[in-house]
Specification:
Elements: H1 2-10, H2 21-31, E1 37-41, H3 47-54, E2 58-63, H4 66-75, E3 80-83, E4 97-103, H5 112-122, E5 123-134, H6 138-147, H7 149-154, H8 167-176, E6 182-187, E7 196-201
Parallel strand pairs: 1-2, 1-4, 2-3, 4-5
Antiparallel strand pairs: 5-7, 6-7
Amino acid sequence: MAGWHEEVWAAVPPGALPESFEQRRELLLADVIAGQRVIDLGCGDGHFSAALVGAGMSVVGVDAAEEALRRARTRVPEAEFVHSEEGAPLPFADSSFDFVWCGETLEHVVDVQLLLGEVRRVLVTGAMLLATTPNQARLVVAREALAGRPLERRFDPRADHLRFFTARTLRELLSGAGFDQVSVIAADGPPLLRRSLIARAR
């Protein structure tokens, strides 16, 4: 998997903003509290890590791609950045973080259940995971299926999305990983056609 992650990042132009960056940054900064120890899980090139540091957080960025981490270290020298192999435990002690941000990452992960169990392990009891991921709403998928090409693009075996979630499946996944308080809402678009899922879990 390591080579695949590096290929994905080699194709990302340096300095490119993450999708819906302003909107997701606002979402993130509304939930964190200055002084918290935060993991930016799937940190990419560090745009969200920079926002967290600017808001007074102690930040550790984690990614499976060394190229992403190289860019992140240049962008945010105040943060710590750690490489984590796909499918390996997170390299942190139990109950060592106050908050985990996982923005547009779960859809790229092979073993999502393992990763979320690790997130639960490293969070302080009662601390929050905030995650966003694309929403595979039934009406959206049906419309794409009727159109043909949009659905083919979504499920192209060469694409970097490996997992696909609805609000129900994401909620069940988080509960199965040991989170007791789970909220998943659909956002970004009209009802029944909302493109994003926002999950908060403790």
